[in-house]
Amino acid sequence: MVTIKIDDRKLRVPEGNTILQAAEDAGIPIPHLCYLKELNEIAACRMCMVEVEDTERLVPACNTQVVDGMVIRTNSPRVRQARKTNLRLILSQHDSNCTVCVRSGNCELQKLSHDLNIHYQPYQVQPERSRVDLDVPVVREASKCIKCMRCVQVCDKIQGMKIWDVAGTGGRTTVDVSYNRSLKYTDCTFCGQCVTHCPTGALTVRDDTNKVLRALADPDVTTVVQVAPAVRVAWAESFGLDPKTGSVGRMVAALKRVGFDYVFDTNFAADLTIMEEGSEFLERFTHRGKYRWPMFTSCCPGWVRFLKSQYPEYTDCLSTAKSPQQMFGAVAKSYFAAQKGLDPHKVFVVSIMPCSAKKAESELPTMNDACGDPDVDVVLTTREMDRLFRSDCIVPADLGEEKFDSPLGSGTGAAVIFGATGGVMDAALRSAYFLVTGTNPDADAFSAVRGGKPWREATFTIPGAGEVRVAVVSGLANVRALMDAVDAGSVDYDFVEVMACPGGCAGGGGQPIHCNEELAASRGALLWKMDAKSKIRYSHENPDIQALYRTYLKAPLGEKSHHLLHTDHAA
Ligand code: HC1
Ligand code: SF4
Questions:
Q1: Could you give the residue ranges of the DSSP H alpha helices within 201-262?
Q2: pLDDT-based confidence at 57, cuts 50/70/90?
Q3: Is 476 in the pocket of ligand 1 (CB under 6 A)?
Q4: φ, ψ at 83 (rounded to 5°)
Q5: For the domain bounded by 92-205, which CATH number is listed?
Q6: Ligand 1 centre from 415 Cα, in Å?
Q7: 350, 411, 393, 509 alpha-carbon torsion, rounded to 10°
Q8: What is the DSSP string of 258-279?
Q9: Of the residues 299, 305, 306, 364, which should be mutated to test ligand 1's pocket, given the most ligand atoms within 8 Å of the CB?
Q10: pLDDT of residue 473
Q11: In the CATH hierarchy, which fold is given to the domain comprising 2-90?
Q12: pLDDT tens by residue, 413-471
């Protein structure tokens, strides 16, 4: 430990800590823009400058270590002036057209400018207008980039992809797609982690709300919306509501106010996925020699894109089951449309997802099995749904609670946990156990796959089937490590759940953005709580799923299921 003084407060702090860490631990705020703890401590923005007494220097707090006896001033006249000058220099290259920026009100640069009382701009330079490519879900506007390097570090260290890089030299140094490519020609998984870690509006997810508004206004179209598991525990954050007020029922009520004809639940399709994927796993497991191992989950499109570009020789290890989002679309435009006597070409399916990669998944040319049109017409992120509510002047806290519509609106506890890392595996094992033994396991029998390390393993015995070796992994850099181990033969699994985003969809790239806060674990904990409180905790016990099989699909892996609910990932 060393003894230091910050703003006249004497502190004992661990040796090796940075000034910023020491100050934050003591509750002394120091502004920063480029800093991401342990990921990006490069002092690029110079916002965290502090004065160290008895030296002539101002130093960046984020990467200067404390020294015994150090006396630090975080708010001296020199410090204030330096921060203001540095911020004005950043603003001199920034498109400050805040009124029409999607991050307005949630932009770290905007907030800091206000906090530092910068209300005029002496170095005003008209930034070059950006070329914006709307073919892909992740959109970059170069003129809003402040060169903080956060996206470069997140993509490189957390997602292991290196899609972003430094480009140019000197005063023209900027960040761009590596090797001067267009994003659509890279292996970008569109996970959106760069977006949720960008402090400004330089990286955003393409806004598709107008397509939905057009469909809602068309009297010939029946609009159907599905809401993903992880959306329900995050949507209310942008309205400052606690989880009790920002309930599922209020979200449903708000979607009905927006004007959707049917408000359904992706949880229904998650239960359906378990029926198909669980059956597929048992088919593979009991005919081991016919298949390549392990079997991988296929519900995360970020992961599917990653596998196909980075380890293409493992593509046939993916479950052929479509994701719940896509199963929902296919069932809505076949079973549901027939039940209601609707022309499937006039049913418009919207998904609300915590995910940017889901936009690309819905646009795959193979995802059109119900009637030849895309099974899902538009995907909106959680943030876009919140913007729809605001633009319709809906105040969710003032609404009563409403229920999802029937029959695609029911889901079990096993379905809602899809949104948290480990949830798909847990749910699949609950039903696989039932399918083999005819009896339910304890709903918490597989809790070893929940939470904890980002790459975890467990072995379970299913009587009559034998030992099943499973792994769960999230965050693509961890996924790469797992794939390398699988490839080297140093690990041996039967079934692996993979989610591209750290912590699973709860931490997806379409979720509300909070500066310097990672909320995947706390949102995931809410999903596990919903499961624990559910009356039904096994997908195979969802009565609407049972009715779907009884009256339409007949059996998991049957002919209709094969056509509507499975896909060839190599196509
Ligand atoms: Fe997900 Fe899934 S869990 S992939 O994160 O399998 O997006 O929430 O909807 O499809 O159910 C996302 C979440 C989501 C699918 C399900
Ligand atoms: Fe999308 Fe979830 Fe995959 Fe992230 S983990 S890319 S949010 S499906």
A1: 209-216, 248-258
A2: confident
A3: no
A4: -60, -40
A5: 3.30.70.20
A6: 9
A7: -60
A8: HT-SEEEEHHHHHHHHHHHHHH
A9: 299
A10: 98
A11: Ubiquitin-like (UB roll) (3.10.20)
A12: 999 999 999 999 999 999 999 999 999 999 999 999 998 899 999 999 999 999 999 99
